[in-house]
């Protein structure tokens, strides 16, 4: 019987990498992508032979209808859109009521919800782990991502879906999707370095974070999907259905120093020495709005994955610092006036594999 997968975020970084990974696996699978733009939807249909629904997550009735036709939803579009997540869950509940089959939703969240407001100062050093999710459940609903996470876990606790919430830290490496191939934080730090002529960090830069290679993250999304579809699933769901993916640990000042070192070696900046940014206007100019930047570039957020390894997850990452050169090249390419909007190599490779 054909497996029906609904994928959100297919034109993005993680979602695009998920799409190419699923297509490369082959099998009796129908993939439908929720896409906001008609042009990108048409390209996906023509070049990759996937179905598309042109819709915004705010159009909850249309999103719900699309989910009601799926066996699996992989939600990689927006970790802070609870109404869209609720529409996906409602659609899967409709499918349960119509068929008696409990379906799967794998939701992409993030460890930003665990971050403190240390702003570059030393912090408590707390490390969350996912074998017992009690500490995760104590994170206030006001924190980033939490309200959307709770839509998934609550529905799973009610028994209407098998719900998994995957919480990656900083994601690095080049994606393999046909559109967006870069993440947020490292490319932003590279752009800030090129703008200032030196690699920036906020305050003392002593906050610690984790990293995860994008393909390793996607591999876990697929593992959870496969486990949920199996006759004897092992992966926890509901209130215990949180999964970390951290493989690297770094301090923000350390990351800035490595970026400075690599860009200086390329002749892109005059000094390898990192630079502390402290003034509010300079922070906003380099990192963006202060509330977001303090969380994304100066906080402390450490997590330890346990359950993923128990499910057979085997990260293949070479390490976060080894990704800097490739991400620098991608940032430069994206900044060119004639930069490609579609990565034809990914499409051609997958298309040939399907023949």
Automatic annotation (TrEMBL):
GO terms for molecular function: aldehyde dehydrogenase (NAD+) activity. InterPro entries: Epimerase_deHydtase, NAD(P)-bd_dom_sf, NAD(P)-dependent_oxidoreduct. GO terms for cellular component: cytoplasm. Residues 5-227 form the NAD-dependent epimerase/dehydratase domain. Transmembrane segments: none annotated. Gene3D superfamilies: NAD(P)-binding Rossmann-like Domain. It holds the Pfam family Epimerase. This is NAD(P)-binding protein.
């Amino acid at each position: 019987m054909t497996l029906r997968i609904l994928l959100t975020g297919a034109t993005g970084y993680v979602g695009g990498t998920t799409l190419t990974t699923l297509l490369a696996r082959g099998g009796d699978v129908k993939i439908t992508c929720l896409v906001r733009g008609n042009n990108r939807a048409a390209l996906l249909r023509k070049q990759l032979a996937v179905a598309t629904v042109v819709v915004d997550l705010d159009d909850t009735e249309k999103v719900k209808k699309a989910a009601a036709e799926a066996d699996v939803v992989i939600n990689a579009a927006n970790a802070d859109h609870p109404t869209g997540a609720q529409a996906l869950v409602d659609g899967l509940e409709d499918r349960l009521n119509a068929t008696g089959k409990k379906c799967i939703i794998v939701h992409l969240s993030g460890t930003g919800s665990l971050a403190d407001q240390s702003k570059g100062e030393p912090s408590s050093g707390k490390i969350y782990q996912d074998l017992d999710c009690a500490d995760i459940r104590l994170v206030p609903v006001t924190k980033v991502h939490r309200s959307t996470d709770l839509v998934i876990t609550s529905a799973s606790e009610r028994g209407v879906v098998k719900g998994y919430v995957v919480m990656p830290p900083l994601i690095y490496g080049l994606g393999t999707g046909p559109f967006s191939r870069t993440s947020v934080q490292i490319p932003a730090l590279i752009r800030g370095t090129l703008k200032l002529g030196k690699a920036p960090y906020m305050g003392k830069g002593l906050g610690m974070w984790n990293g995860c290679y994008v393909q390793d993250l996607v591999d876990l999304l697929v593992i959870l999907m496969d486990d949920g579809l199996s006759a004897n699933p092992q992966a926890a769901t509901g209130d215990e259905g949180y999964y970390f993916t951290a493989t690297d640990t770094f301090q923000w000042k350390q990351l800035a120093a490595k970026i400075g070192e690599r860009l200086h070696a390329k002749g892109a900046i005059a000094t390898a020495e990192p630079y502390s940014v402290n003034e509010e206007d300079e922070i906003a100019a380099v990192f963006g709005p202060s509330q977001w930047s303090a969380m994304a570039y100066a906080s402390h957020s450490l997590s330890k994955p346990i359950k993923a390894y128990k499910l057979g997850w085997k990260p293949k990452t070479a390490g976060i610092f080894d990704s800097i050169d490739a991400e620098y090249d991608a940032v430069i390419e994206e900044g060119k006036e004639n930069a490609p909007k579609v990565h034809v190599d990914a499409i051609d490779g997958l298309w040939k594999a399907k023949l």
